[in-house]
Amino acid sequence: MTRYSTIRAFTLLSGTILATAVALPALAQSDELFDSRDQYTTYAKTAGGCKSGDLINWSPTSISGTDFQCVLETRVPGAGSGLDAIDSTCMIKGEKVSARVVLGLGVRPDHFSVEIPDFLFADMYPCTPVEGLEGTN
Question: Which residues contact 100 (CB under 8 A, 6 or more apart)?
Answer without folding.
Answer: 76, 85, 86, 87, 88, 116, 117
